[in-house]
Amino acid sequence: MSKLPAIEGSELVKFLRWLGFKVIRRRGSHIRLASDDGRITTVPVHKGKTLPKGLLRTIIREDMELELQEFLKLYKKFKG
Questions:
Q1: Which pLDDT score is estimated for 80?
Q2: Which of 6, 17, 23, 40 fits as disulfide partner to 50, beta carbons 3.0 to 4.6 Å?
């Protein structure tokens, strides 16, 4: 199994926007994003803090509906 990268909330929001998600609401330090196909996720954005691995894994699997390997491939392409 591949290791998940350490990602801050703001970086995950940028990545999701790159994938086509749009910001639909911001409430405090949480940003809610939606895709055109109906997938919705909420990302906590706390400056300087990385997302917990369990939360990141839940966002990938349940909210983004991606397999871990597919996420890693897309994230690598995003990072250039």
A1: 87
A2: 6
In this structure, what token pair is assigned to residue 34? 């939606």
39 is written with which tokens?
Answer: 């997938």
Q: Which amino acid is at 78?
A: F
- State the pLDDT at residue 1: 54
Strand, helix or coil for residue 63:
helix
The pair of three-digit structure tokens given for residue 53, joined into one six-digit string: 């691995």
Sequence letter at residue 35: S
Averaged pLDDT in 10-residue chunks for the chain of 80 residues = 88 98 97 97 96 97 96 95
Q: Where are the beta strands (DSSP E) in the chain?
A: 22-27, 30-34, 40-44
**What CATH superfamily classification does 9-69 receive?**
Hypothetical protein. (3.30.920.30)
